[in-house]
Amino acid sequence: MPGQVAVTFPGQGTQAPGMGAPWRDTPSWKIVEQAQDNSDLDLAALLLDADAETLARTEHAQTSVFLTSLMAWEDVKALVDPVAFAGHSLGQITALVAAGACSLADGLSLAAARAAYTQASADETPGSMVALIAGDFDAAVALCSEIGDCWVANDNAPGQLTVAGTPEAIGQVTAQARSAGFRRVIPLPVTGAFHTPMMASASQRFGERLDQVEFRDINVAVIANSDAQPHTLGSEWPELLEEHLVKTVRWRDTMVGLASLTDTFVEVGHGTMIKGLARAGAPSVAVINADAPGAFADQTT
What are the boundaries of each domain within the chain? Predict the structure, then answer.
């Protein structure tokens, strides 16, 4: 078994049809049964039977990723010694539940509210996002400043970031990205400018919802997306989660910070998103995928 590890959770975009099936007949499925008491969705159907189109809806995507990650955590938590927790975007809420900063019921409610508020904000103020590949972060910031109405939404890894803003501004980003030094521009299939000031109404509504949640102090820190710093005080999380919706996800800095604490990350949940980003942002780190029952144990024994 590895020594102390950084426990990481993926965000939206890692959902897939049938992603809950490996967990159906395992002790981890109790997470779904417990969560069902606090959800209007048919969670078993969502995790076992939903097609890609159904899962593309924001609430469905975020709920399925959240629950699958927590089932995976149930499978590995007795086998790891966490030095810190972190989650990418939505995964930050998963990390808070895993670390003990909030309950499963509150985490599920927050994930659903976050999805609803951000989608409503996108409907009110439509936006666009593009991934910029193989270029410089500062160049992206400068390009956004020059164009206006667009911002760096995700600083994922060296040469891997996303920019979000109004459709008009993102059109200009797309046209000028190559001259700014970026090798590729990839349009993302979203209708909102997530993690930018265009989510201000969602952030305000989410802040009001966060005031109803009791966050506990924890012994092992969760790294916040908005400042890439470790936090253990429950009182800090309402503000951090509220501002998170309008600020850049600083995942590149998060990986650097985690890599200073340990040489092993555990990616808890479906897919290999974290592993792919770590390959670019923390190449000295080993990433163990805990994406199926027994997967972590199989890779470490």
Answer: 4-123+197-300, 127-187
Pick the catalytic residue from 64, 89, 109, 226: 89
Predicted TM-score (pTM) of the model is: 0.95
Question: How far is CA 99 from its chain centroid?
Answer: 15
As a whole number of angstroms, the distance between CA 92 and CA 111 comes to 10
The per-residue pLDDT string of the chain (301 residues; one tens digit each, 9 = 90 and over) reads: 678 999 999 999 899 999 999 999 999 999 999 999 989 999 999 999 999 999 988 889 999 999 999 999 999 999 999 999 999 999 999 999 999 999 999 999 999 999 999 999 999 999 999 999 999 999 999 999 999 999 999 999 999 999 999 999 999 999 999 999 999 999 998 889 999 999 999 999 999 999 999 999 999 999 999 999 999 999 999 999 999 999 999 999 999 999 999 999 999 999 999 999 999 999 999 999 999 999 999 998 8
Which residue in 88, 195, 231, 270 is the catalytic one? 195
Fold for the domain defined by 4-123+197-300 = Malonyl-Coenzyme A Acyl Carrier Protein; domain 2 (3.40.366)
> Is 260 one of the catalytic residues?
no
Question: Is there a catalytic annotation at residue 39?
Answer: no
CATH class belonging to 127-187: alpha beta
136 burial via Cβ count (<10 Å: 0-12, 13-18, 19+): middle
